[in-house]
Records
---
Amino acid sequence: MSDDRTTPAPDSPFRPDPGARDAAPQFVLPLVVRIERAAPPARTDALETAARAVLVMLTDERSVGEGEWARAIRDWQDARIRKVVRRARGAEWRRAEALPGITVTGKSAEVRVFPPVPLDGWPKELARLQVSGTDLDDPDPVPPADPGVPALWLNPDLGMSAGKAMAQAGHGAQLAWWGLSPEARRTWHDTGFPLAVRTAAPSDWTALTTSGLPTVRDAGYTEIAPGSCTVVADHPALR
């Protein structure tokens, strides 16, 4: 589980007062990654697919205006933007697919994102899924991020499970989206949300965190210390 404590963009629906955000009813955005024993996804592909899944959920017609998920999205964003990544396989995955949501696929990864639910109100099909210990590997060397592609840079000094890193990448993508102009948002959306998730070089991390780009600071609910900077969202249109 994770949430962001960064300063919101001017048009962000975050409450400006952290106390008010904490006092608001708390919701969580569930994401489920498919991990079959015989064919687990590559770690980086899973992280990138999770980040795109968050963007797809935010921009789906059901999530905006008077859409059926719009109220849940607003309530979630009015509090802390908690995200939880769980894993499923076989019959568990099929049960998850039957619930309202969106499945986003990568090269090897499948991630299903669901409309926000109350913190203590998970559907039973998702509540029974495992949340801890979700870890993955990259079987092949990960190439450098393509120049010009939005990049979500992970803190090189933090060891995070794949599930934790997926949630953090989703936070970074969301903050990048909020920081963009309407025109830049349309371009990113219309091109299918290309992005890369990479671990920053240690020598670059200080410059990234002081660049003015959106940064994610973890609330410290799981795995890492509160206030830790986990992701810097580097979209070319934000520079």
---
Amino acid sequence: MVNDAKPALPHPLPGAIGLSHLSTYDWEAADGVCGGSPHLHLVCTEAYVVTGGRGAVQTLSPDGYRDIPLEAGSLAWFTPGTVHRMVQGGDLRITVLMQNSGLPEAGDAVFTFPPEVLADPERYAAAAALPPGTGPETAAAAQRRRDLAVEGYLALREALVAGDNGPYLEFQRAAARIVRDKVPTWRALWRAGALATAERTGAQLDALAGGEPAYLGEATAYEAAPTRLGGFGMCGRRDEYNLPGTTLPHQSE
């Protein structure tokens, strides 16, 4: 007998990752490059799986400045603290995999706004916020936000290329100050998501070692579809999913 019932989603995706699809912004920035809003994540590694088109991801890290080419089939990922900027080369489309589902949407990302904006929490919050919806007003606000992030990013990049990592390190410190008050919320999301998933695996290994795999009786399958198409994310237009352990992106932006 086939059971067509759709079960609830008590478990996150494998490894407690977050997932979205991106189509890179084609707005031209001050340096003549089309792309997204440079930013970093404080505790999450992010991966790009390129599904179509071409472009690049520009990164700033202790390694210096890098321009990593992207094309269909490419895979690139970057660890916490790495400033990244997705750049359009032609119909670039990406599936984004995020560590610690729920944390990026709960604020684990800081834009590379100029230092005077980063120094004022209220000014930063106002510059980072977007109006609700996906209409022209939201698009205009997203472009202004991108342009402000690019302004700060270009200064960081220029200094780093010249051998001065001071502004980059100060940006990391400023980013940490901005998110400090969010850490208790992040810790709760991590415990309920990524940590619980890892601990579940440990319990399953214990059960197998003991010859009592009763947990296999809970085997099932899940499905999900995007809950919003074409939202305005940091890097581009974004198709989003409401998945277990994840705060909906359009509730936090």
